[in-house]
Fold:
Amino acid sequence: MLRTAVSIALVAALAPLAAAQDSGSGISVPVTLSGGAMYTQRLELTGAVQSPYTAGAQLMLYPTVQFDLHWFAYAAVDFRLAPYLYYDAYNPQHEVLGNVIQAYAGYSIRTANTSLVIKAGQLASAFGSFPLRYDDAQNPLLDQPLSYIQTLTLGAGEIPCGVKDLAAQHYGFVADSCGGAIGARGLTPVTLYGLRGAELDFSGYRVDARLQVTNSSPADPLPLNRAGQYTQWTAGAGYNVVPGFRIGFSAFRGPYLEASLAPLLPSGSTLRSFPASAIGFDAQWAHGRWSASGEWQRFQYNLPNFTSAPSIVSTYGELKAVLSPRLFVAARAGWMLPGGATDRTGASASQFAPYVASYELGAGSWINRHQLLKASYEWLTIQNFPGRQLDVLGVQFVTTFHAYDRAFHQ
Structure:
């Protein structure tokens, strides 16, 4: 919450400076305000509540300051009354959460055919394509793809002794026996909530490319005051094959284990000796009333005590059909498939963790161009977890508007 307040204050403080710039300057604060309700037995898993019903809300602010034709500042700030998102339902207690998803200063150079943008501050991860669609008005469904929300049976603050440790764990929280914090939350492959760093973006001649350098891994983002920060790189590019069809790829690599584990590492090794790495491919297609998108991603987490590191393959496909100017339907299917692992004793497993599958079907209606009502049902399956307790039925009402707009002139 403190970081949220500081970021909003920073953008607000910069706004008056725009008045001293040229006629291309100004300030704008787009807003997305959403309310929702859901029915799911996820709420009852902890025993803290005895009702499968809940409701929540989310406020997204996007303050933007344009200083002149080149310099600008941008932020994306999320306030949420949880449980609101589907994955919030694992913690049924109502609480107010705040996250700074992005907050950066930028410099752009544009010509007739190309654009070059330099950004520094808190940035959305350059890995993958979904982080660009986290807004409720942009996401045709209510949930997010698995690799951006599902926690793993691996943690950044624990060291598993071997394959036996991994096989005994469950998604969400981990408790390994060879050192580190006990009961810490598992990693999420790619964060949706921002990393500190700098980024260079290029677009032109059907090509877009990005290079991002950050202070921590997309799997375990760290604040600037935390120990164990190491330079990470993420890169990506895309190509518009024909109008309406784009293909892309992205990758990242760097240390992800927490600094507290350094004394427990094998002699002669450091945290840099055990990086997390990933590669992904994505595609987007649109023609007439139909549109589709999807991603294939592979993540690997190098660890002490392992000769073959644990890995995860995550993939999803999404399809949307516009039935009328106001009505659409959408569906998404996704899978998270753990790979094998071998430890230094020679023990191995063909699958180090349970697989996860998610299927979501939904529909939406634009009441007007600023208000959207949508609903969906999600079937979530985790191997060895019986029944349909993880399924969710949800509804959202989304409103978009500009809270403030002002252009400055000399």
The chain has a mean pLDDT of 88. Helices lie at 2-14, 163-167. The two ends are 36 Å apart (CA to CA). The longest helix spans residues 2-14.
